[in-house]
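Re: the 206-residue chain
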Amino acid sequence: MLTSYLATVLLIELTPGPNMAYLAALTLGHGRRAGLAAVAGVALGLALIGLAAAMGFAALVAASPMLWNALRWAGTAYLFYLAWETWRDEKETSPAGIAGGPSGKHRFFLRGLMTNVLNPKAALFYVAILPRFLPEQNASLHDGLLLTGISVAVATAVHLAIVLLAATLHPLLSQPERLRGTRRVLAISLAGIALWFLRSSALPSG
């Protein structure tokens, strides 16, 4: 069961999602330290969602179409906001100017956190997939927290790999026009992911 869960988590994390596109765009535009700060925020966001799910919030959301739709739309709106931020190119793009100072790292940490608190993909995972790997009888809070910890660890490893790869490619894409084109491709990807999640997470009618 644990092996199947690990394989499922890894497969989900390797599929295109908001974290992958956002972390790549952020690292390409602002450098490795900005990406690492965002990874820390992403990990905390995933842990908070997992903790809430383990304590019963997932069941509450699954039982309330109004709450589920509110989270869907809020998450989609935030992904579109990130896509717009990625598209428009921020004025200061040097790692020293943005990611080097505490305020810059703090800002990217908070963005990573919000990206996952309102992440439709994370919500779907903790509401619809993780419970399937819990014991059918007498599932405890410890079981939920254990699976949450595993998913956060796997996700963080994948996110770190994305940031390090993007940081390696940064010198090759440092020309303004090339970097702008790459960021805009990633921005379009983020917007497409937002639309796909909005559609795929819709509750069946009737």
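The chain is about 80% helix and 0% strand.
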